[in-house]
Design goal:
heterodimer; A: 248 residues; mainly alpha; 7 helices; 3 strands; B: 200 residues; 73% helix
């Protein structure tokens, strides 16, 4: 118990600097009785005295005088407040926001794909049937990064759709037919009217003969693949054998 | 104002106007370097002494004092006026000094000695030698303390701050200041008993 009193008294002695009368009464009573605490009190007084003498001789300035405080760099720094520092960042952010809004406005409504998605798209290979059957078609120039994305909705540029598996009865049956070569059909027929007497025979009318005059028709099944290379041949086919003067 | 002219005015002490500290702070916030020069002249000695008490090296203390005032000039807008400006400046300086001591502890250097003849040039050599010896002994005892204990001892015994000012300068409560001071003085007493007992 006495040890505890000594420890507590030492705390007050360490913090007491000037007058012992400021100490609590129980500390003063303890000091009168305890020799160890009296020695502690003397040791603290010597320590305080040494510190005061040390503090008295601490210099107030550097031994070689004060260097002038150089605030030039600080002046330059203060000229540019944080608002001006943030100005270029804010400008770039606003420009980017306007550009993204403009890009979103010019994109077709149904198109949801973005450029990174297009970049990740695997290019679709040309169909084999076209390359085998037809003449070699000119190769389309590769799409580079600088090119603008096509405005028309394209099958190749469409985003990959991860669709849920549809029920079997709702799944449309896709019939894939091989692409045929460009096939041009020219149906030519002279402007001959049907035999007016043919119907008067009272016989059975055949449905093979058209009843309306047929004009020569130039029809293309497919547009030419390339304007440079026209189709190799045209297939001449009579619309009706009678038009060619054949024997009925 | 030109920086060289301003430095010349600060060096020659050409400031006869008695202005309140608050007005000087307001002028500093407006970017007036002359007003900050007045504050520099008023408080640099206290800041220097506090830093020197912690680091124990005049060269480092001068550098840290300059650094402390530069930081104060940079952060003068954040000074709320809750404490005195002197306490605020000493707080900046003491924290810089504590960081310096911690950094130096990991990278120890050979300390520069104080100027032997400068402070005691006007007294007889015997007394000067005694004082130098005492100063060296106390300095060794202080250097043996942790940086936070050095700061609390210096603020109390060198700068004569009261507990409230010390709490503001150290950023802790008054009770914490008292506890730190008790521990610091106990360590210092033990150290001085060893050093002075050996010399006597």
């Amino acid at each position: 118990m006495s040890w505890l009193f000594c420890q507590l008294a030492e705390y007050y002695l360490a913090l007491c600097e000037e007058d012992i009368d400021r100490l609590p009464a129980w500390v003063r009573r303890h000091l009168r009785r305890c020799l160890r605490c009296q020695e502690v009190k003397v040791a603290y007084s010597r320590t305080r005295e040494a510190m005061l003498r040390y503090a008295q001789h601490l210099p107030d300035s550097p031994p070689h005088g004060w260097r002038p405080l150089s605030l030039r760099a600080e002046m330059k720094r203060r000229v540019l407040p944080w608002k001006l520092t943030l100005l270029p960042v804010a400008t770039v952010a606003i420009v980017l926001a306007i550009f993204s809004l403009w890009e979103r406005g010019t994109r077709p409504s149904g198109e949801v794909s973005t450029v990174p998605q297009l970049a990740r798209e695997v290019p679709v290979a040309p169909p084999k049937a076209l390359s085998q059957a037809g003449p070699p078609s000119p190769v389309a120039p590769p799409v580079t990064g600088n090119d603008k994305p096509q405005k028309e909705p394209s099958r190749q540029l469409a985003a990959p759709v991860v669709a849920k598996p549809a029920p079997a009865h709702l799944t449309p049956v896709v019939v894939r037919r091989p692409l045929e070569a460009p096939h041009t059909v020219i149906a030519s027929q002279t402007a001959v009217q049907n035999d007016p007497h043919a119907g008067e025979d009272g016989g059975s009318q055949t449905t093979l003969e058209p009843l309306v005059p047929v004009q020569p028709v130039l029809a293309e099944a497919h547009p030419p693949v390339s304007p440079v290379q026209p189709p190799e041949a045209y297939v001449m086919q009579a619309a009706h054998p009678a038009s060619t003067g054949g024997v009925e | 104002m030109d920086a060289q002219v301003w430095e010349w005015r600060v060096a020659t002490g050409e400031h006869s106007r008695q202005e309140g500290e608050h007005q000087l702070i307001e002028r500093c916030r407006a970017g007036d370097m002359e007003a900050f020069g007045v504050l520099w002249q008023q408080h640099r000695a206290a800041v220097f002494r506090s830093i020197l008490g912690v680091v124990g090296n005049t060269q480092d203390a001068e550098d840290l004092t300059q650094d402390a005032f530069l930081r104060a000039y940079r952060a003068i807008e954040s000074f709320r006026g809750e404490a005195q400006l002197r306490t605020w400046l000493i707080r900046i300086g003491v924290h810089l000094a504590i960081d310096h001591v911690k950094r130096k502890k990991s990278h120890p250097e050979v300390p520069l000695e104080w100027d032997v003849g400068g402070a005691y040039a006007d007294i007889d050599p015997h007394t000067a030698a005694e004082r130098n010896e005492l100063r060296e002994t106390v300095r060794k005892a202080i250097d043996a303390l942790p940086p936070h204990h050095r700061a609390v001892i210096v603020l109390r015994d060198v700068e004569g701050m009261d507990y409230t000012e010390m709490a503001q300068a150290l950023g802790c409560s008054v009770g914490s200041v008292k506890l730190r001071l008790f521990r610091a003085r106990r360590l210092l007493k033990q150290r001085l008993e060893v050093l002075l007992g050996g010399s006597r």
